Amino acid sequence: MSVLNIDKGMLKDRLYHLIRIGYDRFFSLLFYFAPLKKNKIVFNSNYGKGYGDNGKYIVEALLKQDQDYDIVWMLDRYNMDHAVMPDKVRRVRYGSIQFIYEMMTAKVWVDNSRLKYHLYKRKSQFYIQTWHGGLGLKKVEADTELCSKYVKMAKRDSRLANLFISNSGHLSHIFKNAFWYNGDILECGSPKNDILFADKTPFKEKVRAEFQLPATSKILLYAPTFRDNNNFTAYDIDLLQVKAALEHKYDENWVMLVRLHPNIDSESVAEIFPDKQIINASRFPDMQELILGSDMLVTDYSSCMFDSGMAEIPTFIYASDVESYVDERGFYFTMQQQPFDFATDTQGLINALYAFNQPQYLANLAVFYDKVKLYDKGQASTVVAGKIKKVIKGQQISITANSRLAASQETNR
User: Fold this and answer.
1) pTM score, two decimals?
2) How many CB atoms lie within 10 A of CB 395?
3) Hey, what's the signal peptide range on this chain (predicted)?
């Protein structure tokens, strides 16, 4: 009976997939002949899950240009009502018929994830893929095992893209060798990382106001990545023990925030950490702002560790399933090569917290970022917005030879 139910479920999913492909192709072909609006820029981010990541910061840079742009942001059902966005940005429901219309009539597409809908793209349209991770520990795309459905989607997305945005020589190498992509790469840094070079004070105030915390409280942010099997057993950190250890060491009040990966239902925090002292920060719209508002970050394999490091915030890796995870997914760096203290159980993490040395930590970061050729300088949003302005005006955009050839040079070494 269970096998029959599984077969029915698979058949239902397959049928929906085929219907959706037909739906996408019909309406994109219909709108293919609609006039192209040369001042329109469409943004997709995390499949409609809010206003944030690289796209947000590109939008802010575009608005500073004071040009007559028609900027459209795609949102899911929840965020159509809840996302906080500039008034000059239009909201459109992600995946709707209007979504297809806006995509087909826009001059520029900007996305941080794979385009999952089967849309046609005009030759005169320009697609910028910013990706949602910069430096990363875990292997991605062709460097790991993926289902055939995702691989087809990823290959299609890379064929459509005109430009990828990279924040490091390391990431450029991955784009060229694991993303099925042979086009231009703009090595200017990640737009979302620009604020990591800003004053932290306003973000500390914003985060504390959002969660109604005293101004004097310290914040530890626990932000693990997802598991391919959607299993929560690896999130076995005892945050209350960690809280007690931090308060003992620093003689200050510490608050534990948890932010789950966008692939996980945000309401799962209460299931994983039922204690009321643990605060769910998964719906906070901007991860970079949340990092800057925190005083410490604990993650497992998420690329946010490198963002936090850029902001010189104490960062630790807690990964109780590291042996099985590295066998299944694989890493680009060993735990010994990355600049963060690493623990596999709560006591080990507490020991690392007690032994933490800020000057040595900063020295380790400097060595690591130099090794991976980090390009983040706080100007990426302006650089990308400038390229978009040229595309809108019909001007040729220049990508340096270093940007185009960085990955192939790495491969030949």
Assistant:
1) 0.88
2) 10
3) none
